[in-house]
Amino acid sequence: MTAKIVIKDLYKSFGPKKVLQGLNLEVEQGESVVVIGGSGTGKSVLLKCILGLLHPDSGEIFVDGQPTVRLRGSERAEMMAKFGMLFQGAALFDSLPVWQNVSFGLIQGQGMKLPEAKRVAIETLGKVGLGADVADLTPAELSGGMQKRVGLARAIAARPEILFFDEPTTGLDPIMSDVINQLIAERVRDLGATALSITHDMASARKIADRIVMLYHGKIIWQGKTAEIDQSGNPYVDQFIHGRAEGPIQMEVRAS
């Protein structure tokens, strides 16, 4: 397999707070990788660096072999066109109907005409289990689970090569979380896309990941196939995946 995303020796700090400390990661073409870890371990900062929302202090990020850290203008826009993103809170535009939210990138980024954009939006909504009757509603008229599905529809509408998922099940009940996880797994597979997700939800990680990576203090402390995580042999991983209060992570929190 060929690496779709390569991250080399990535560092990022905010003042005295060191967030990413020499992180190295490769995501293969067509692979679904989930990054787990507690709050403040660097998951969101890693995602924002890849997306270009944050500039790393040092290190390199490659997408399809192209260095991205210093991309600007049209080159940055061309790279971003490969990406689809499901934000933690769905991040829908309140002032737009559902169908315009779904087709926003097609209209603004590709100049698609509105009638065609609405047709694609309705077709895409069907792929996440929502009917055409939802298309003209506003986000405020939707439940949290429906908003999340609309966010997923927007992420996949342009058939991106790479999908990013930021805490995709936050705020959802266990049943709706499983629905979203199943939809993510199916849509990623249908697209043949490469996926990188960040979450602290182990049920989500187990459902959507081919490989799980754990961050701790800005570094990868374990990575392996999803089926291997219960036998990781790493006390930090074992404590995290079982949600135990006692263990090396808690000890360091008490000492700080």
How does the SSE layout of this entry go?
Layout: E1 3-14, E2 17-28, E3 32-36, H1 43-51, E4 58-63, E5 66-67, H2 73-80, E6 83-86, H3 98-102, H4 104-110, H5 114-127, H6 144-156, E7 162-166, H7 174-191, E8 194-199, H8 202-208, E9 211-216, E10 219-225, H9 235-242, H10 248-255
Parallel strand pairs: 3-8, 3-9, 6-7, 7-8
Antiparallel strand pairs: 1-2, 1-4, 4-5, 9-10
Helix pairs in contact: 5-6, 6-7, 7-8
Protein architecture, described:
With 256 residues, the chain is α/β, with parallel strands linked by helices. 38% of the residues lie in helices and 25% in strands. It is built from 10 helices and 10 strands. The protein has helices at 43-51, 73-80, 98-102, 104-110, 114-127, 144-156, 174-191, 202-208, 235-242, 248-255; strands spanning 3-14, 17-28, 32-36, 58-63, 66-67, 83-86, 162-166, 194-199, 211-216, 219-225. Strand 4 and strand 5 form a beta hairpin. The chain is globular and about 55 Å long.
Brief descriptors of the model:
globular; 38% helix; alpha/beta; Rossmann fold; 2 domains; six-stranded mixed sheet
* Share in helix: 25-40%
CATH superfamily of the largest domain: P-loop containing nucleotide triphosphate hydrolases
Radius of gyration: 19 Å
Principal-axes shape call: globular
The CATH architecture term of the largest domain is 3-Layer(aba) Sandwich
What oligomeric state do the depicted chains represent? single chain
Report the sheet-strand fraction.
25-35%
Discrete helix count: 10
